[in-house]
Design goal:
Length: about 800
């Protein structure tokens, strides 16, 4: 290629981490400072252009410095200020849920359209740590046609050309570009070297249009006067290169035109994820990751519950934007990955706490509104005996639920003295919606206040719930009541083991592993399920993306079983409590087996007090390959090191498949046929280097961490089990009253099973609701929505694709119209 054909597109930018080595207040205010500085420079240099994404920063400027915002708007109109990205902030691009990415674009793109009359067509990931395989599907649905990124670098992710088509699992494509020289920013003195290096690379790269990113940045900054003067001098010395101040939209338009002129095969196609890099981020600061996942699931579930209930009752749907704003902000690529300072995490955890509470408030409000319309009457006992308690149980998913639900309630307003000293003898009864008695099991309450006399009682009950619907149960103290026995084999427990006829779990003091059997066959072999502490000398981002740091396996400790106790013996549920311990830390695992359930449910509590180490759960399953749920897709990996995973992972071996799901964990690796899940790291806060850290600096995650996980045979039920783990049925104690709605009912259902609901929400413009789904089985599906007594034929959803509809109530009934993530027609 002749140098005269080259066009250097100078992309002036100022990468700004709103939270990193500073807190969010400083970060957002730096957005004002940086933009004012760049605007002054644009006034002085008439050819200077600038790119800026992140609607949260624009919104902060608009609210607190409206004059600066008006100056930005004028340069946007003039074409010199390029609004890019389309997201609220630049999120981590591996860890958030699929709907969280979609909501980034919903909020970001609608903000940009409302303020500047346009949406961004080019996404921009300046600094995130690898990219999930499903992002092209999400971006394409949000009006994004181009994607600029810098990581992973070429030594981790070799590319035939800096520009290529990135194709998602559903066939959606975006034009992607990674600069061959440098990354998003530059040092003050770097411009001549960067342009020289870009010229050398461009002569080999085969593209006429070359992006050259420059500008101070990590805490704002942007182009400087020195940069601009040196660019002028370099351009004058290289007349064979056309040097233009450009933007991401102009660069991608030029690249697309160049590709079209060269033919269909000019640009290569990349399919699948673009990982892995800075692998420590998949596990750093577990206390934040755990809280984030819990909040993310709570907000999405509460929004869905509120939308369907309020709409059915013809009541206003709640505004969930503030809660979602918290989720979106906290998905930022230096918050969720765990690379910020301790003070920042303290504040971000507080922010998540507010969002979690708001989600609970919205959910309870909707369920109480439903309760007011439902028939919740209970039988009136004779004399002064207390009545039973109505319990409305809500299924937040669009498929029927069949399983066990746990709830607790008072059997009287004071302790029942007649049963003092024999609290276990209190006769209890649970009636289903047709007032038929159900099997039940009394389990320990959450308090030990009055142990010798009954007052509050907690039960586990097998229930059936309709999709996105409710059932009312009666729970109370009934003299003479006898709970019916189930015809199936009950759960049993004895001698350090529990069994439900499908799974058996057993533990022995002194052993390193916990044995799990599925239909008589050992799941983990002689080694059992175990916990190891491995050396982890690396900082927040982990070690180099090569060698030992990619698969940490130098064992410091193998924990052993120090205590075993059977807590519950059945018939509906058996529980085995096991403590695994080392010298300084320990892990308590409560294994639950339910009657008829083909899964092992585990509640985990870790007391962590280590330095330069990480804890891994080791599951020797004969793994040859594993399938992971990741944002927007499923990916298969073999012989992988520390890698990001989503809500579930399914392993494949010569003899068995195995499924694992959690409500908290993100980082997995494989070693000698074992799936290993990282629970926590003991690194430092915002620590980049290796080596000893001063003892006065706190290790990350010292203290208590709680999470849940489950194991199953890796069958088709795994994705639903993972969703139910994060969003279980909700039990609400209700007043007893007459109602116009029946004791059980369904408001919505979606078929076929391969369609996963990502969102059911109020439309951004308030006109109806938006339903968003993802096809997960890898084959096209004809979607049918049973909605408020109607059947809506939604049409075909392509294999692995994401689709959205706007649902509106018309005079003749409900209609469903295809829309996008941005909610265009």
């Amino acid at each position: 290629m002749k140098p005269s054909k080259l066009v250097f597109h100078l992309i002036g930018n100022a990468h700004l981490d709103p939270v990193w080595l500073w807190d969010w207040r400083e970060g957002l205010n730096e957005g004002i400072i940086t933009c004012r500085t760049v605007l002054d420079l644009m006034d002085e240099f008439e050819d200077l252009t600038f790119v800026r994404g992140e609607s949260a920063i624009y919104r902060h400027i608009e609210e607190h410095d409206p004059r600066t915002f008006r100056r930005i708007a004028r340069y946007v109109e003039a074409g010199r200020w390029d609004v890019v990205g389309g997201t609220v902030l630049q999120p981590d691009t591996n860890l958030p849920a699929t709907e969280t990415f979609a909501r980034h674009f919903t909020h970001g793109q609608n903000y940009f359209r409302s303020r500047f009359g346009r949406i961004a067509r080019v996404a921009w990931a300046a600094d995130s740590f690898g990219h999930a395989a499903g992002l092209p599907e999400i971006m394409a649905q949000a009006g994004i046609t181009g994607f600029a990124f810098t990581r992973p670098f070429a030594d981790i992710l070799p590319l035939a050309r800096p520009a290529f088509w990135w194709e998602g699992p559903g066939g959606s494509r975006v034009l992607a570009y990674r600069p061959e020289v440098g990354w998003y920013g530059s040092q003050r003195d770097e411009i001549p070297r960067r342009l020289d290096d870009a010229l050398v690379a461009a002569l080999k790269g085969g593209l006429r249009n070359v992006g050259v990113f420059y500008g101070l940045g990590n805490h704002g900054g942007g182009p400087t006067r020195r940069h601009l003067l040196e660019i002028r001098r370099w351009a004058a010395a290289h007349p064979e290169v056309e040097v233009i101040h450009s933007g991401l939209h102009r660069l991608f338009d030029a690249l697309r035109a160049e590709a079209e002129g060269q033919g269909d095969d000019f640009l290569p196609v990349h399919r699948g994820e673009m990982n892995c890099t800075l692998r420590g981020c998949y596990a750093s600061v577990a206390k934040f990751k755990f809280a984030y996942r819990k909040t993310e699931a709570a907000v999405a579930g509460a929004e869905r519950t509120d939308a369907v209930i309020r709409t059915s009752l013809r009541q206003p749907v709640a505004d969930t934007r503030e809660a979602w704003d918290a989720v979106l902000f906290n998905s930022f690529h230096d918050i969720l990955p765990g690379s910020s300072i301790e003070r920042a995490f303290d504040e971000q955890l507080a922010w998540l706490g507010g969002a979690y509470h708001e989600a609970q408030r919205i959910e309870l409000g909707a369920l109480d509104a439903l309760v007011q319309k439902v028939d919740t009457r209970v039988a009136r006992p004779a004399d002064d005996h207390p009545t039973a308690v109505p319990v409305l149980v809500w299924n937040p998913h669009p498929w029927p639920f069949r399983g066990h639900v746990e709830w607790e309630a008072n059997m009287d307003y004071r302790q029942i003295d007649a049963y003092k000293g024999r609290a276990d003898a209190l006769p209890l009864q649970v009636l289903d919606p047709r007032r038929r008695p159900l099997p039940l099991q009394v389990v320990p309450t959450e308090n030990s206040l009055i142990w010798d006399a009954p007052w509050r009682k907690r039960v586990v009950v097998p229930v059936e719930l309709p999709p996105l619907g409710w059932s009312v149960f009666e729970f109370g103290w009934v003299e003479g009541a006898v709970s019916p026995a189930s015809p199936e084999r009950p759960c049993a427990a004895a001698a350090g083991a529990i069994d439900n006829g499908i799974y058996r779990v057993q533990a022995r003091k002194g052993r390193a592993g916990i044995q799990v059997f599925h239909r008589g066959k050992s799941v983990f072999g002689d080694a059992g399920l175990s916990a190891i502490v491995v050396e982890d000398p690396w900082g927040s981002w982990g070690g180099p993306d090569r060698g030992e740091a990619t698969n940490l396996s130098k064992v410091r400790e193998r924990w052993h079983v120090t205590e075993v106790e059977i807590v519950e013996r059945g018939p509906e549920r058996a529980m085995l409590w096991v403590r695994l311990a080392g010298r300084r830390s320990h892990l308590e695992l409560s294994f639950h087996l339910y009657r008829r359930r083909e899964a092992v449910d585990v509640s985990a509590r870790l007391l962590w007090n280590e330095r330069h180490a990480r804890l891994k759960l080791v599951m020797p399953v004969g793994l040859a390959e594993a399938e992971f749920e990741v944002p927007g897709a499923r990916v298969r990996r073999a012989d992988f090191g520390e890698a990001p995973g989503g809500r579930w992972v399914r392993t494949f071996g010569k003899k068995q498949t195995f499924g694992f799901a959690s409500d908290a964990l993100y980082c997995f690796d494989s070693r000698d046929g074992a799936l290993r899940a990282t629970v926590a790291r003991a690194s430092g806060y915002a620590l980049h280097v290796t080596g000893p850290v001063p003892s006065w600096r706190p290790p990350v995650d010292c203290g208590e961490l709680k999470f849940r996980f489950l194991m199953n045979p890796g069958n088709d039920e795994l994705p639903r089990l993972a969703q139910t783990l994060e969003q279980p049925p909700v039990a609400v104690l209700a007043p007893a009253k007459v109602g116009t709605l029946p004791r059980t009912g369904s408001l919505a259902a979606l078929t076929p099973d391969s369609l996963q609901v990502l969102a059911l929400k109020k439309a951004e413009d308030g006109k109806g609701l938006v339903l968003r789904v993802q096809e997960t089985a890898g084959r096209s599906a004809s979607a049918t929505l049973h909605w408020m007594g109607q059947t809506l034929r939604l049409g075909t959803v392509n294999a692995n694709a994401i689709a959205s509809w706007r649902l509106q109530r018309r005079p003749g009934g409900w209609t469903a119209t295809r829309t996008s993530i941005v909610e265009d027609a």
